[in-house]
Write a structure and sequence with these properties.
Chain lengths: 298, 398
């Protein structure tokens, strides 16, 4: 039981990161980045590549590897964040704030381009990224867990907390919230709205890339792993409320827990329970548990 | 000064062109093809290596004069792991390219998708990698699919024969993934277990993308399972042994050749990958021919433990060539007849085939040809123990 809770919270915190990414772009641009999943997988491979290059160049001992891994995480976040900009410019900006669903196809398309390019570069096999603090199993009573699970949870919570504070306390965060609240008013107040939108895409893509490096030592990296993570992240955002960052985070953890606790009973029912939960929440609260009703002008 | 030289050159060129034309008329190449996944799914790895094996066999056959005096021309078609693409390739190869034989595919599902086409169009197909039992089950009117590979039913038969014979296996659990591969495997396992009177104490399923099987394992542990028979692809198999470590619960694990695919050692890591015992067709290279082939294509393999895919593919070409020579024809019907009654032994990479096929039997390799294997120090090696030594042909119920 405790075993399942640890596993659930670990994956749940990653879903929360992805959900936060959906929240960022949705509130600022009213669009969603459906390429997030591909940013997760490609991010993991950028991390793998970085670790590989560093190890080859400098040689690795246990202490050095922790730094390599940290650098890989930064590299993946940066690389994916930077890739978020062309995504915004090519796939979002022409459609942002306009009615219509063109951005759905354009973001999915961008993801396919990204995935195919990565496939030709790295191939389709699963690869394991060595975790920074060793792969041994720690045992507390009956429960066994690996250090990486704690790393993922700790980092994800730190990032989620950091975002929460940044959105409320910093000027940039306030700008983002202003754009989310009322784009026209924000523009009239002198906020550079397109810049904020681009930043939202940068941040959400960087979060995806970072998530990839975080989960790779647990899930093993493959270029197909991102799709399901992003789908769960999206469900988390829907459950928690797309407009509420804290709701998205809670939604992520909830989905992670539902998943692993259902698996205790029957693994085949896991996905069914997750999406039943989504349907149930939507039926009772169409804007998610913590969402706010948005009026879309058509 | 230049004129005589030019003349000689012209004459020589003309001579060359003429000989080439005459040769081409005398020996129009025989087209043969591989239709399988070499890029789309994780099993594409075995397709890529199979193509290397076929390429090597084509080279060798052409060196000794081709088939029926004609050189072989090898076409490669990637089906991307997708049945519609595989069907399209198949009709294109048969109707437009007019190939004489098709090798492949990589994925069982694709073979099942187009086997009716091969049977209707009387196109001999030699399968070197896909393992689903149903592939070689054909219509009474004529079955054109032959196989030199692992067969799921035979693997299940071998694994359960061991389990039945092993006095230490008191409580057995079946662990399968929820894909078609896992489900078909479970069906085979359950049917053969019934023949042995084995009742599994736990049957657990997991998704092929799952990375945490602790909940399923906890149930097996609670049921007192000491032996697991696992039917899953390489990556989930790796995650299964990682989950076993988390629970500190290590029942004996017996599984299919999937454990020899790169994804398994990659995910399981150097220590845990040595735990399962699995089946291959050729874990260690023993014959000189197979060592020589390995020297030729081994350097091109990212994972040398997958060399079996090349050996099996190589053998399919030899068997087909032997049948065509025996029939004195490339016609599908006649080649099929010859395959079903090969009168000379064919010395292949995996073994020497003596009358491998008959009308009713289209499997070139069966349970007793399989090698018991395990990973040791990064290589697939033979697994030996007293229980194996005691296995008799009668133990392989299927």
């Amino acid at each position: 039981m405790l075993q399942a809770i640890i596993g659930g919270l670990t994956l749940g915190s990653v879903y929360a990161l992805i959900a936060l990414g959906f929240n960022l772009t949705y509130t600022t641009t009213r669009t969603l980045n459906f390429a997030q999943g591909d940013f997760v997988s490609v991010g993991a491979f950028v991390g793998l590549g970085t670790v590989g290059v560093l190890t080859a160049a400098l040689g690795a001992d246990a202490v050095g590897y922790v730094w390599f891994y940290a650098l890989a995480a930064v590299a993946a976040a940066l690389a994916m964040g930077v890739l978020g900009l062309p995504l915004y410019l090519a796939a979002i900006r022409p459609f942002a704030g306009k009615p219509g669903m063109s951005w759905v196809v354009s973001t999915i398309g961008f993801g396919i381009v990204l995935q195919s390019a990565a496939l030709s570069l790295w191939g389709l096999g699963a690869r394991m990224l060595a975790p920074p603090f060793g792969d041994e199993v720690f045992r507390v009573g009956e429960v066994g867990f690996r250090s990486q699970e704690l790393v993922v949870m700790a980092l994800a919570f730190a990032i989620l907390g950091g975002f929460d504070i940044a959105m409320r306390r910093t000027a940039l965060g306030r700008c983002m919230r202003a754009v989310a609240l009322n784009r026209d008013a924000a523009a009239l107040m002198g906020i550079d709205v397109p810049r904020v939108m681009a930043l939202a895409f940068l941040a959400s893509s960087a979060l995806a890339g970072l998530s990839g490096v975080l989960v790779a030592p647990i899930l093993s990296a493959s270029l197909f792993m991102g799709v399901i993570i992003a789908l769960k992240g999206f469900s988390a955002a829907i459950i928690g409320g797309l407009t509420n960052p804290r709701g998205c985070m809670a939604g992520g953890l909830l989905i992670g827990l539902v998943e692993s606790l259902t698996a205790l009973w029957s693994a085949q029912w896991r996905e069914i329970m997750v999406f039943l939960l989504v349907i149930l929440v939507l039926a009772m609260a169409p804007n998610g548990m913590f969402g706010r009703k948005l009026v879309e002008k058509v | 000064m230049t004129t005589p030289f030019l003349k000689t050159l012209l004459a020589a060129t003309a001579g060359l062109v003429m000989t080439a034309t005459i040769q081409a008329q005398a020996a129009d190449p025989v087209k043969i093809a591989y239709n399988g996944d070499i890029s789309g799914s994780p099993s594409a790895e075995s397709g890529q290596i199979g193509v290397l094996g076929i390429g090597a066999a084509v080279e060798d056959i052409n060196k000794r004069g081709g088939v029926l005096g004609r050189p072989l021309e090898f076409l490669i078609r990637d089906d991307l792991g997708q049945p519609p693409k595989a069907i399209q390739n198949m009709t294109d190869l048969i109707d437009r390219e007019k190939v004489s034989v098709v090798f492949g595919p990589t994925n069982s599902g694709n073979a099942l998708a187009w086997k009716h086409i091969a049977n209707q169009k009387k196109m001999p197909v030699l399968v070197s990698s896909a393992s689903s039992t149903a592939i070689t089950e054909g219509p009474a009117s004529g079955n054109y699919l032959f196989r030199v590979s692992m067969v799921d039913r035979e693997q299940a038969a071998a694994l359960l024969a061991y389990v039945k014979k092993n006095p230490e296996a008191k409580s057995v659990g079946f662990f399968v993934e929820t894909t078609g591969y896992g489900q078909a495997g479970l069906k085979d396992l359950e049917q053969i277990a019934a023949l042995h009177g084995i009742k599994p104490a736990a049957t657990e399923k997991f998704d092929a993308r799952d990375t945490d099987m602790t909940s399923q394992l906890a149930k097996a542990k609670a049921a007192g399972v000491d032996t697991l028979v696992v039917w899953a692809q390489a990556a989930p198999l790796g995650h299964l042994v990682r989950s076993m470590e988390k629970l500190d619960y290590f029942p004996k694990v017996f599984t299919t050749w999937a454990a020899s695919f790169s994804g398994f050692p990659e995910v399981a890591g150097p220590k845990l990958m040595e735990w399962p015992v699995f089946l291959t067709t050729s874990s260690e290279r023993k014959s000189d021919a197979s060592k020589a082939l390995f020297e030729r294509i081994g350097p091109k393999l990212a994972n040398p433990s997958m060399f079996w895919a090349a050996s099996q593919a190589y053998d399919t070409v030899l068997l087909w060539a032997a049948a065509a020579e025996q029939a004195g024809s490339l016609k599908g019907e006649e080649v099929r007849g010859a395959l079903e009654s090969l009168n000379k032994p064919v010395a292949g990479m995996v073994k020497t085939y003596e009358k491998p096929f008959s009308t009713a039997q289209h499997e070139g390799l069966t349970a007793s040809d399989y090698h018991w294997s395990r990973w040791k120090d990064g290589k697939v090696v033979d697994f030996n123990d007293p229980v194996l030594d005691g296995l008799q042909p009668a133990d392989f119920k299927k």
